[in-house]
Amino acid sequence: MSEMIYFDHAATTPVHPRVVEAMTPYLTEVYGNPSSVHGFGRKARQALEKARDEIAGSLHVDPQSLIFTSGGTEADNLAVIGGALAQQGRGRHVITTQVEHHAVLHACEYLEQIGYEVTYLPVDETGTVRMSDLERAVREDTALVSVMYGNNEVGTLQPIEQIGRFLRERHIIFHTDAVQAYGVLPLDPEHLFIDMLSVSAHKINGPKGVGALYVGKHVPISPLLHGGSQERKRRAGTENLAGIVGFAEAVRIAEAEREERVAKYKQIKAAMLARFQEAGIAYHVNGHPEHTLPHILNVSFPGIETETMLMNLDLLQVAAASGSACTSGSLELSHVLQAMNLGEERAESAIRFSFGITNTVEEAELAAKKIVQIATRLQK
């Protein structure tokens, strides 16, 4: 049996061997609670704060502005719900987009249930928010805006700095879900006028179950978890020390290798598209042609339903995805592609390929060859 080609790194990534190595002592030897005052606890606390410094450094922010969470979903919920609740005095209106991750969309739906009003901004056919729509949506009682950095399904990058600058002038809190952008793009929330920013470890070859939320110095936030004074009373619960240490190691590696990784992902993307082009199969690339994440490629193959293509790929040892991981397994059309108004056929035949550190250009060539075989057979 040939080796499986894993093109689903946007869903999750393999843990880097160096990350496993960094975590091991914190699962076996350094088992103290970071909140304990004895030697065991102090040693754990030291490791926790060293990891916090490392991750904060990658974002050019004050270590005290980071809140460790159980992942990107919790970070998004804490930002959207915790941010909105803390801003009630200002108003109960929140703005987001139709193409957010479900962690943001479902958090907004929860706010609607408790009496908030949410505006869901449309996007153009590339998946980009129009500044004019945002400007029109902002009101006196707008308390919070959440717009993702780079889309997890089609890769489109939003005009984050422009949005941030506009909102900063109006003193409106701005959150961005940067889970897919972290590790592949340089992020500096303070320069981009971002008040809150979510990241996750398992998208950058760290462990599952750990993430972080950056919260700017003067940004109020209401905790969602109660029961302890951890994370400066903003997130109760004993910190996942081994996970956080692993996260910091993954960040260290990603930062050191970023340029080289990005160059490789671009080569992989180009190699696949060149093979489709040469073979003359029918395909459409979804998302913005230039302002896009380097590791995500979303392609529609007209005439072949998403599920059919995925099953055929799986039989040929290629793992890809339909839209976001949280909704795969369900046959619903991608909410992102629907919002982009590309037509039903494009939405029903879309596949997301996402690349990571284990992939090579040779694999891309091989996978593309298999895709061409399937398309040639099924598009007749």
UniProtKB/TrEMBL annotation:
Q: Which family does it belong to?
A: Belongs to the class-V pyridoxal-phosphate-dependent aminotransferase family. NifS/IscS subfamily.
Q: What UniProt keywords are attached to this protein's entry?
A: Iron, Iron-sulfur, Metal-binding, Pyridoxal phosphate, Transferase
Q: Which reaction does it catalyse?
A: (sulfur carrier)-H + L-cysteine = (sulfur carrier)-SH + L-alanine
Q: Name one Pfam family in it.
A: Aminotran_5
- Which EC number applies? 2.8.1.7
Answer whether the UniProt record assigns the keyword Hydrolase to this protein.
Answer: no
Quote the Gene3D superfamilies the UniProt record gives: 1.10.260.50, Aspartate Aminotransferase, domain 1, Type I PLP-dependent aspartate aminotransferase-like (Major domain)
User: What is the superkingdom listed in this entry's lineage?
Assistant: Bacteria
* Species, as recorded: Brevibacillus panacihumi W25
SUPFAM superfamilies given in the database record: PLP-dependent transferases
In the UniProt record, does the keyword Chloroplast occur? Answer: no
Give the protein's cofactors.
pyridoxal 5'-phosphate
**Designated name of the protein:** cysteine desulfurase
GO function terms (MF aspect): cysteine desulfurase activity; iron-sulfur cluster binding; metal ion binding
Domain Aminotransferase class V: residue ranges: 5-365
